[in-house]
Each structure stands twice: as C-alpha cells, then as structure tokens.
Amino acid sequence: MEGTPRTHESNVMQFCVIAIETAARKMGISPTELTKRLEEQDLIEGRLFKFYDMLHTQSADYVADDIIETLYNYEHDQ
C-alpha cells in the first residue's frame, strides 16, 4: 500500500506538532495549553513556520528549548 506523498506543508505541520509536544512535555503542561500560549504570542507562525528551514535541521530538544525560551521572553515583555 502506498502512502500519501509528503508535501512541504505536511513536513512543516509534522515539525510543529513534534516541537509543541516536546516543549509541552518539558514544561509539564499539555500541548493544548502550550499551543494556546504560543498562539497568543504569534509564535507558531512567527517562529516555528517562519524559521522552519533553519529549525528543522536541529534536534527536537533544541527546538523545544528554543520555543520555550522564546515564549518566556515574549510573555515577560508584555
């Protein structure tokens, strides 16, 4: 059985899901809660989507740490 061909969009979406799940686990919160917080700061599109080409070459832990640090910085600056 053949699978559905991978597209750039599906790769980006899978990357975002893994990044959010990994970061949420590190923070001890649910992926839903983290997604809400990231959306409030426009970090899903403004960070994960925008910098996908650079970030997807890094480990899941690196990306999770990056998004956690970025989120804390954005929330602190409000």
How does this structure look, described?
This protein has helices at 8-27, 31-40, 43-49, 52-55, 60-76. The N and C termini lie far apart (51 Å). Helix 1 (8-27) crosses helix 2 and helix 1 packs across helix 5. The protein has one domain. The longest helix is centred in the N-terminal third of the chain and has 20 residues, at 8-27. By secondary structure, it is mainly α. The model has no long low-confidence stretch (mean pLDDT 94). The chain has five helices and no strands.
In short:
The protein has 78 residues and is mostly helical.
List the helices and strands and how they pair.
Layout lengths: L7 H20 L3 H10 L2 H7 L2 H4 L4 H17 L2
Helix pairs in contact: 1-2, 1-5
Strand content: under 5%
- The Rg value, from CA coordinates, equals 13 Å
* Class inferred from helices and paired strands: mainly alpha
Which regions are unreliable across 5 or more consecutive residues at pLDDT < 50?
none
Pattern of helices and strands? HHHHH
How many angstroms does the end-to-end distance come to? 51 Å
> Residue-averaged pLDDT, rounded?
94
Major β-sheet annotation: none
Total DSSP E strands: 0
Q: How does the overall form come out from the CA principal axes?
A: globular
Q: Domains counted in the coordinates: how many? A: 1
